[in-house]
Design a protein that fits this description.
The chain folds into two domains: 229 residues, P-loop containing nucleotide triphosphate hydrolases (Rossmann fold); 120 residues, OB fold (Dihydrolipoamide Acetyltransferase, E2P). Helices cover 23% and strands 35% of the residues. It has nine helices and 19 strands. The strands form four sheets. Strands 6-7-8-3-9-10 form a six-stranded mixed beta sheet, sandwiched between helices. The chain has a five-stranded antiparallel beta sheet with strand order 13-12-11-14-19, with no helix packed on it. Helix 4 packs across helix 5. The two termini are 32 Å apart.
Length: 356
Amino acid sequence: MYLDVKGIIKSYRDNTVLDGLDFSVARGELVSLLGPSGCGKTTLLRMIAGLVTADHGTIRLAERDVTGLPAHKRNVSVVFQNYALFPHLNVSENVGFGLAARGVSKAEQRTPVEEALALVRMEQFADRPISALSGGQQQRVAVARALVVAPDLLLLDEPFSALDRKLRETMQVELKALLRSRGITAVFVTHDQEEALAVSDRIAVMNRGRIEQYGGPMELYSRPATSFVLDFVGMSTRIAGTVKKVEGRSLLISTAYGEVTAPGNFIQGAKVLLGVRPEHLDPVPGAAGSNSITVALSDVMCLGAKTLVHATASGADRIICEQSGAAQQGLPSTGEPVTLSWNVEQTLVYPAEGVQ
């Protein structure tokens, strides 16, 4: 692997932030570290950059052991959440700062700075002060500054969090295309699951200093390995139940809404959590052999390209059905019963003790 992190442990006093973590990235990959605040993703990023020292473990980059190297000797660039641009320098001076720190003369900086600004379509702003730029323009300058030194690895710490939604989505597309075109290896930290799904080749879902699942966006969404990943990556219907009967890998599960069949390996009497992605549920009676539950409709939310149907749930359960378009015709009124059906094979089952 191009980046290989092995057995990393990091603690602050009695708080273990990273707990024996393994993580690897292939050359040219764009990988996201996804997880809630406090899960350790930014600590891992800063450790790879050389800004934080590991208590135990090793970090190898481009066939070099960089575990003990200071940040300035790793050839790693970081784009920080607040961009960390220098307000007393103009755009081109900001972009050339890393080259100047490496002893490159102003004359020699000119061409690579111009090329970096052209990559992010900011060449016409070269002489502008940073204070005269919008948030999206500042983000482009920060990316250009990171790329101009030809880093072995690019690290991005929630670089879009300060941008409004439409600009954030535009920048995600542009950055992904830019990194692809240059063959740059990058690690991207975010707590936004839609952002991670949009930009990543693979995603490491982190929780409490460990990686719960590491895989491609569709793998994580369609086959989440744990209930935490199910809940953190996309929306889901979640129903608590008890295994009533086992026949091979087929489970008959008793729930507050009736009996449900699901594939899985659990013993009779086990407490479980059922998960179903909202788009797999239909507000109509299903075919023979499919699962169905009848619940009271609590809300219908039209979100433009899709409509979310929420049903009244018991306790900590959550029942959501997603329909394409503004499909509200045929749905009952709020408070009236609605039957939701789905394919047995689309039912995910997890141990109840794993519920977050």
